[in-house]
Amino acid sequence: MIYYAHMRKGIRRIAALAVAAATAGVAATAGAVEWQNAEPEARLGGRMISAGYLKGKVVMVDCRDYGQKTNLEAMKRLQALWAAYKSKPFVLVGSHTGAASDRRIAAIMEKFGLTYPIYRDFGCETAGDEISVFDETGKRYYSGGDDKAAQAVVGQLLLSMAAPQTE
């Protein structure tokens, strides 16, 4: 019984962290998200997705120029996140916002082992590097340029989905 009580406290603490992360300079939106450019012709590599596939999942959209070498470390970290959580109700979608050709992006994906879906201009609101994290209802919990902070929010949201808080 003591262990169970400690688990509940830990879950509440994690949920509080998720709320704190969501309110710390993060743009939260109400209502469902309209995903743009989820069509097959916008896909550059990785798993094929659709707007319906994203429903009920934590979704991270990574908007960046995938043709820039300066983004390589972030892409490697995101690949590790995808590998760790792809069996969970989670989807990572890369959104290529640069001018590099589809062929170049495919070559980069192959060279660096990127297996998560990457689409051209998928649901990005800005032209610069930005990451957004949405919960299973489509509410935005993170918007910014720090992939590590976004990964922490993903983990917290997945944890809160796995263990509902009931008293």
Task: Please give a structural write-up.
By secondary structure, the chain is α/β, with parallel strands linked by helices. The protein is 40% helix and 18% strand. It has a six-stranded mixed beta sheet. Helix 3 links the parallel strand 2 and strand 3. Helix 1 crosses helix 5. The radius of gyration is 16 Å and the shape is globular. The two termini are 14 Å apart.
Describe what is shown at a glance:
The chain has 167 residues and is of the alpha/beta class.
What secondary-structure arrangement, pairings included, does this model have?
Elements: H1 2-23, E1 43-45, H2 51-54, E2 58-64, H3 72-85, E3 90-96, H4 102-112, E4 118-120, E5 130-134, E6 140-144, H5 147-162
Parallel strand pairs: 2-3, 3-4
Antiparallel strand pairs: 1-4, 2-5, 5-6
Helix pairs in contact: 1-5
